[in-house]
Design brief:
It is found in: Cell envelope. The chain is an alpha/beta fold. It has two domains: 3-136 and 271-299, Rossmann fold; 138-270, Response regulator (Rossmann fold, 3-Layer(aba) Sandwich), CATH 3.40.50. Helix content is 45%, strand content 20%. It is built from ten helices and 16 strands. The strands form two sheets. Strands 2, 3, 9, 10, 11, 12, 13, 14 and 16 form a nine-stranded mixed β-sheet that branches. It has a seven-stranded parallel β-sheet with strand order 1-15-8-7-6-4-5, with helices on both faces. Helix 4 packs parallel to helix 5, helix 6 crosses helix 7 and helix 7 packs parallel to helix 8. The chain is elongated and about 60 Å long. The termini are far apart.
Length: 335
């Protein structure tokens, strides 16, 4: 597959800077038919997938096509395969899929393609060729997570020690890449990366795993998705220690709170709404007969820290104040 960076702005001058935040241009796509697109993510619960769904639905409304969110309630290969089969039986024209497993769902996806459906990946691909893929460069983002942890440890004067990794599973492409990048960041250092433990994206399981790591005396813990990161942050909070460095992946209100309260140093925030938007556009183009060439588009990631969240909050407060002032001026002029 060809690889394409849609448009990235690189910033390296401040804490919480962008690792690769895209500047995505608005595009109007005209559908040549009454297309039905099924969006099937790993689950329907994580805020990451909800944001992707909302981006897809917004784009579908603008382009006058139908999008239905058909994700399973939990991360489970069998349930995701059932969703794919239901989309085929339901006469959908295209699939937007975030594959729970590279291999397990590939057979069902190939059957969908054989039935005449177009396939576009969002977030996580399987081992079947698709029209296009819109995802984070997960290995690069994982390496950034590792570098952020090293920096935070060194700021505390910690130059060695053991580090735990809480991953989703050993079959999801995104999870594999995020861990590979994280481990790469520690090559040549004196830190010891312990054997990875898997939580299937469940925050409660992740917290138990992280608590076990803390009992072993780790200096840092990395969570590779929203559920894993939530569990890591909650475990550090429960420990009462301010010496353990927690780094997460994904963005949610819960994770923002854990960062603001000091239980996580940062999280790698993706752009799932852009994945959803661009995924719908790609489905329409493919259904219109356009050859997308299997291109992979990096939708970017940013590092959210306590400092960057504070800056965002200040900007929102200022914008709200400006809006209130403008409203008052309008009311006075009307009087």
């Amino acid at each position: 597959m060809k690889k394409k960076i849609f448009a990235a702005l690189i910033c390296a001058s401040m804490i919480g800077c962008l690792a690769a935040t895209p500047v995505l241009a608005d595009e109007t796509v005209k559908a040549d038919g009454d297309y039905k697109i099924a969006v099937i993510t790993m689950d329907s619960v994580d805020q990451h997938w909800v944001s992707l769904k909302e981006g897809a639905e917004e784009e579908a409304k603008a382009d006058d096509v139908t999008v239905d969110f058909m994700a399973p309630d939990v991360k489970d290969d069998a349930k995701q395969i059932e969703c794919i089969n239901n989309a085929v039986a339901g006469g959908y024209d295209a699939l937007m899929v975030a594959a729970n497993s590279e291999d397990a769902v590939s057979g069902a996806l190939q059957e969908a393609i054989d039935a005449g459906m177009k396939l576009v990946y969002v977030d996580s691909p399987a081992n079947v060729e698709a029209e296009a893929t819109f995802s984070t460069d997960n290995k690069a983002a994982g390496k950034t997570a590792g570098e952020e942890m090293i920096k935070a440890l060194e700021d505390k004067g910690v130059k060695d020690g053991s580090i735990g990794i809480v991953n989703i599973n050993n079959s999801t492409n995104t999870a594999i890449q995020r861990e590979a990048g994280f481990r790469e960041a520690f090559e040549g250092t004196d830190y010891e990366l312990l054997e990875t433990q898997f939580c299937e994206g469940d925050a409660a399981k992740a917290q138990t795993i992280a608590e076990n790591y803390i009992t072993e005396g780790v200096v840092g813990i990395y969570g590779t998705n929203e559920g894993a990161s939530t569990g890591v942050g909650n475990a550090i909070k429960a420990s009462g220690s301010d010496e353990i460095i927690g780094v997460g992946f994904d963005k949610s209100d819960t994770l923002k709170g854990l960062i603001e309260d000091g239980y996580l140093v940062c999280t790698m925030a993706q752009n799932p709404d852009q994945m959803g938007k661009l995924g719908v556009q790609a489905c329409i183009k493919a259904l219109n007969g356009e050859d997308l060439g299997g291109e992979v588009t990096d939708t970017g990631v940013s590092v959210l820290t306590k400092e960057s969240l504070a800056e965002d909050g200040a900007e929102e407060t200022e914008e709200a104040a400006d809006a209130d002032d403008a409203e008052e001026e309008t009311e006075e002029a009307a009087e």
